[in-house]
């Protein structure tokens, strides 16, 4: 319920990144709490608080925000297909995690959440460098951001090719 008001105030990207970072810190805290549980009984409280924070941060960012972003990144024509693919990927990953978690927990022991922390770090870095802010922007403005990134990447690649050609001609 709170997310409906937060998303328009804070923006999609910032909420998504803060949610991912909060989940990352919570996953690290769960790992530490579980690893030190046999040495310190109070670590069970650390683990419980970390679990609650993990869920809260998920509900603030990575839970709802991808649905906003997918709907805003595609024009009306391909939007239904994009949302269907996103939903399929979401539920497939949920199914895989649900089915495999116990086996991974048995294999990794108290370090099972380190895997989640590593994945969350990768997701955070990807979102930080690749996902634009879509708050208050039209589809055309968002498309223009992607075109500029693609154009600057192509321009950079062309400049590198020209530089390599110049180096090659100097050596000859």
TrEMBL record:
GO terms for biological process: D-glucose import; dehydroascorbic acid transport. One of its GO terms (molecular function) is D-glucose transmembrane transporter activity. The chain crosses the membrane at residues 15-36, 42-60, 81-105, 111-129. Keywords: Membrane, Transmembrane, Transmembrane helix. Residues 1-135 form the Major facilitator superfamily (MFS) profile domain. One of its GO terms (cellular component) is brush border. InterPro entries: GLUT, MFS_dom, MFS_sugar_transport-like, MFS_trans_sf, Sugar/inositol_transpt. Signal peptide: none annotated. It holds the Pfam family Sugar_tr. It is a multi-pass membrane protein. It is found in: Membrane. This is GTR2 protein. It comes from Casuarius casuarius. The gene is Slc2a2.
